[in-house]
Predict the 3D structure of the following.
Amino acid sequence: QWIYLNGEFVTKENAKISVYDHGFLYGDGVFEGIRVYSGNIFRMEEHMDRLYRSAKSIMLDIPHSQEELTNLIAETVEKNQLENAYIRAVVSRGVGDLGLDPRNCVSANVVIIVEPLSIFPKELYETGLEIVTVPTRRNRPDVLSPKVKSLNYLNNILVRMEAQLANVNEALMLNDQGYVAEGSADNVFIVKGTTFYTPPGYIGALEGITRNAVMDFAKELGYEVKEEPFTRHDVYTADEVFLTGTAAEVIAVVKVDGRVIGEGQPGIHTNKILEEFRKRVIQEGVK
Ligand code: PLP
């Protein structure tokens, strides 16, 4: 396995960063998770746009043009000879001193990791997930915007821990007003009739690339898609619920806080979207 680290390809054992890196000391940096399907990097441009927007928002200079970094990622994928994989691109503020001041960090550290990935066991895509809602809230958009995919994932980690304490694999967090925001690392959709609903960006969620792709695919399949705020009640009473994310892809939810969703198994519309998603991630790479 080859890891790109600041201009070099190194082995996993040699992929090391200083303890003075502000990504390590303070979570000061940004990242992307991207997927490779049959040798094609899925929606690369959208991921790169988001990475550069995240960096701009926290005033972090990525020491490469967007085109250069895109090429470096493609090169790392090629070097690892993986047809299906998960890419993690990380840009941290770099090595500084023990103070917070980012001006003491000379240059950003850039890391690209490519490896095979399986997040949920395969069976769960057939049976669907049981999830809960948890006390940890999504951070408010007027503080650090949830649109920034930063290295500060403590909120999301607490959500995942709260899920584990409830003996389930994933959980939903609400925003400070009690509207459903998203999962720990995935966006949420509910289906009522033939309409798909997902929370709008201002509710406080990451603008998921998979979410946007699913909205495109659903519209093309003739579904109505609405970005509207909704509450836990709406989730409990939905016909279908599913999550989307680069790692999770599209996965049905069959129970939320003990309430059985629909028939208690992945719904027909969710399955249709999952099928379309699996087809399109490969098709989009065929030029
Ligand atoms: N929400 C959060 C907090 C995430 O970390 C992710 C994962 O990247 C998502 C949603 C899903 O976004 P995407 O589909 O771009 O992976």
Summary: The chain has eight helices and 15 strands. The longest helix spans residues 268-283. The mean pLDDT is 95. The two ends are 28 Å apart (CA to CA).
